[in-house]
Automatic annotation (TrEMBL):
The keyword Transmembrane does not apply. This is DNA-binding beta-propeller fold protein YncE. It comes from Nitrospirillum amazonense. Residues 1-24 form the signal peptide. InterPro entries: Haem_d1_sf, Host-pathogen_enzymatic-act, WD40/YVTN_repeat-like_dom_sf. The keyword Signal applies. Gene3D superfamilies: YVTN repeat-like/Quinoprotein amine dehydrogenase (2.130.10.10).
Length: 332
């Protein structure tokens, strides 16, 4: 007899199709597929993509695993096990390496993506979190601990530098053109701006009455950095020149990822309440385009411009059912 769990991906897709868009007209995101993640329990964190080999890597924090997903066949192809709360993840195409940051033991582990053989470990002590890859140098940036961003040389592998922060960093981005790091520091209710070369803080921005700033998106071309706040739930856009607020708008609750779609001039805000908010940047300011229903707890996502797809991670249901990756196609 088929189990209830086996039917969860179909049920989740049906529910989203039926309840889908909270607005009128054609939705800005269309559910194209669901990719089942069998035997994945607990919270799912961040994702990374290997474009050359059509692979999606998923950090499954509550399960202690990373799954490698074949995007074309929409199936899991392999798995890394034995991890300690993996949350941040990155991919280095020049070396075919997966970088996994673990909250549980503070380690950053490197794996050859093709074989999933371990290629090294860098111990950061505690709470290794978000991962960013500096495409200009091939170095890896990892937020960690009570306040720092480690600079890792994957060739050794080893930590070669540290950027100090006043508290634990959450979402951050690096603008290679200006050499600046923009870092969410929610325990201080601020966004720190740092000079990557000197490690010195050049500014700290704190929009009033805003707390719990976790995700961030950077539109370097337009000179804008977007911050996702949880209390109150808002997307706030700042000028990278001076931190001036250029727009602010309410969003769905419990956001953990934000991405900017430069082609359509819109933001995708994924939220744990079970929605993705689509927000347009217009000459008149930020405008709420639509709210796309997902699944409760599906707060992490990855927008891949090269594929023109938004991947949303939906954890397993409380009463059974597989975790899934929801694949959305933006329109028009």
């Amino acid at each position: 007899m088929p189990s209830a769990r086996a039917g969860w991906p179909v049920l989740a897709a049906l529910l989203i199709l039926l309840t889908g868009s909270a607005g009128a007209g054609d939705p800005p995101l269309v559910l194209e597929a669901t990719i089942p993640l069998p035997d994945v329990g607990g919270r799912i964190d961040h994702m990374a993509v290997d474009l050359a080999h059509d692979r999606l890597f998923v950090a499954e924090l509550g399960n202690g695993t990373v799954d490698s997903i074949d995007i074309t066949s929409r199936k899991r192809s392999s798995r890394i096990t034995g991890l300690k709360e993996p949350q941040g993840i990155g991919y280095l195409p020049a070396r075919d390496l997966i970088v996994v940051a673990n909250a549980g033991d503070g380690s950053v582990r490197l794996y050859t993506a093709t074989t999933l053989a371990q290629a090294g470990t860098v111990d950061l002590g505690e709470d290794a979190d978000n991962v960013r890859v500096d495409a200009t140098t091939g170095q890896v940036l990892v937020g960690y601990g009570a306040g720092g961003i480690a600079v890792i040389d994957p060739a050794r592998p080893a930590k070669i530098a540290d950027v100090a922060l006043p508290a634990h960093p959450e979402g951050f981005h690096y603008d290679a053109a200006t050499g600046r790091l923009y870092v969410n520091v929610p325990d201080r209710r601020q966004i720190d701006v740092l000079d990557r070369k000197t490690g010195q803080r050049v500014a700290a921005w704190s929009p009033p009455e805003m707390r719990s700033n976790f995700p961030m998106a950077l539109d370097a071309a337009a000179g804008r950095v977007a911050i996702g706040y949880r209390n109150p739930a808002r997307l706030t856009e700042l000028s990278t020149a001076d931190g001036a607020v250029t727009g602010s708008i309410p969003t769905c609750g419990d956001t953990d990822d934000i991405f900017f779609d430069a082609v359509r001039s819109r933001y995708y805000v994924s939220c744990g309440e079970g929605a993705v908010d689509v927000i347009d940047r217009t000459p008149e300011g930020l405008v709420h385009h639509d709210r796309i229903r997902t699944v409760s707890g599906a707060r992490t996502s990855l927008f891949v411009p090269e594929l023109d797809r938004l991947f949303v991670a939906a954890r397993a249901g409380w009463f059974g059912g597989d975790a899934t990756i929801l694949v959305f196609r933006p329109t028009p």
